[in-house]
Structure formats: structure tokens, C-alpha cells
Amino acid sequence: MAGLEIREVSVRYGASTGSTRVTAVDGVSLTVAPGEVVALLGPSGCGKSSLLRAVAGLEPLAGGRVLYDGEDLAGLPVHKRRFGLMFQDGQLFPHRDVRRNVAYGLETQDLSRAERDERVTELLGLVGLAGYEQRAVPTLSGGEQQRVALARALAPRPRLLLLDEPLSALDRQLRERLAGEVRAALVETGTTAVFVTHDHAEASVVADRVGVMDRGRLLQVAAPDELRTAP
Ligand code: ADP
Ligand code: ADP
């Protein structure tokens, strides 16, 4: 099957330390079709981030499998998965200007400088920051920084983009506007994505389908207007 397949995945913590074991993700199955955006929604501590990190290869699987385009990713390290990552704190390089932040993921690709600049300009346009190439990161607002982080994550054309609460540090009004912009950028680039959030409105704006999690389990997956109850 094309796209992402999460099959009966479990994630546990504390196995090696002998401390109390926490089952953060408990047998979750979910598929994400090519070009689809799926949100993982649920309260803090329900395992959203752990599941995302397991898909990224940042957390070992205690059970289950993760496949992409039919290939089992077991043993494939993070950088070989060709996934993009974006977190709440965009973790931009503060001493690099916007152009060099966005170009970061292109450095390992075989592109001429002109091609790279062109791609950066195109991406900045896509996230509403046309003309920002030479701005210094510390002069940007929080929302602008997350737009740059999105452009940087999209630059290498990842086959899957994993976003972990990318808007949570922003105030509510900005968050709702940016959620719409993130969706537009994902749709425009045809990017397959999983978007973790605890915000119901944000999930509804961003995603084609929403997976609702609680205590490590996936309770339902539905289109935003078909969710059974607002969690
Ligand atoms: P969410 O992203 O929904 O807030 P998390 O995946 O961060 O949930 O956490 C799920 C559960 O796993 C919580 O009980 C959390 O305390 C626990 N957890 C997360 N990361 C770790 C870790 N590195 N070590 C131990 N427990 C963890
Ligand atoms: P999120 O809300 O996105 O899940 P958190 O603030 O819960 O982020 O977690 C931030 C980091 O701390 C993550 O790397 C997570 O794995 C780790 N973490 C979360 N809960 C625990 C915990 N109970 N014990 C140890 N590490 C944890």
C-alpha cells in the first residue's frame, strides 16, 4: 500500500531503567494516504507525541510495525526515512538568516546555488514571507519563525511531514490563522502529513481526517465534521 501504514504500534517507557513502565501508545493502527493530512488529537499525555516520534524513528517500537509505501521501516534510521519534522519550537539557527535556514535541508541535495535560491524564494512565498530572505531570525515574531520552520521542513520535499504541536506556542488568534496557512501549504505542495495537536479547532482546520487519542489508544478516525463527540 502507498503512503504511511501504522500497524498495531505500541511505545513504552521505563523498560530499561526498571522504573515504572508507562505504555504511552497501546496498539495503534492508522493509515495515511499519499497527499492526505491526518491530525492526531487528544489531551496532553495521551501518547500523540510518542506515536509521532515512533513513526519518525526517534522512539523504538515496543510492538507493531511502521511501513511507508509498503516498506517496513524497522531499523531504518531517522535520516534515511525521508520524513520532515517540525516541532513547537521551530529550532531555527539563530545566527543564520532566513534564506540559510530554509536552505538547510537542501544542502545535501545536488542543486546549484541559483536553483537553491529559487526554491527558497518559492517556499517563502508559499508561507507568506516573500522578501524575508535576509531577515535575521531574532527579528522575527513567533508566527514568522514557525512559518520559516515550515518552509525549511518542506524544502527537501519530504515524502511525509510530521508536525508535533507546531503552533502551540502561539496565541489562539494567530494559531487559527496559521492552521489555515499550514493546510494551504501542505495541499499546495501535495505533502502527506501527520499533525499532532490538543486543539480541536486546529485539527479540524488542518486535517482531512482526525484521529482521536486517549490514554494511548486511538478511539476513532473521521473527517472533521464527522467526529462523534468533541473531545
Ligand atoms: P502527548 O504528546 O499526547 O502529550 P506523550 O506521548 O508526550 O503524550 O506522553 C504519553 C505518556 O508517555 C505520558 O504519560 C508521558 O508522561 C509519557 N512519556 C512521554 N515521553 C516519555 C519519556 N521520554 N519517558 C517516560 N515517559 C514518557
Ligand atoms: P509534548 O507535549 O509535545 O508531548 P512534552 O513536554 O510532553 O512534549 O515532552 C517534551 C520531551 O520530554 C519529549 O522529548 C518527551 O519524550 C519527554 N517527556 C515527556 N514526558 C516525560 C516523562 N514523564 N519523563 C521523561 N521524559 C518525558
Automatic annotation (TrEMBL):
Pfam families according to UniProt: ABC_tran
EC nos: 7.6.2.9
One MF annotation (Gene Ontology) recorded for this entry: ATP hydrolysis activity
Coiled coil: none
ABC transporter domain boundaries: 6-231
SUPFAM superfamilies from the UniProt entry: P-loop containing nucleoside triphosphate hydrolases
PROSITE patterns: ABC_TRANSPORTER_1, ABC_TRANSPORTER_2
Origin superkingdom: Bacteria
Sorted UniProt keywords: ATP-binding, Cell inner membrane, Cell membrane, Membrane, Nucleotide-binding, Translocase, Transport
Enzyme class label: translocase
Membrane in keyword set: yes
Protein name (record): ABC-type quaternary amine transporter
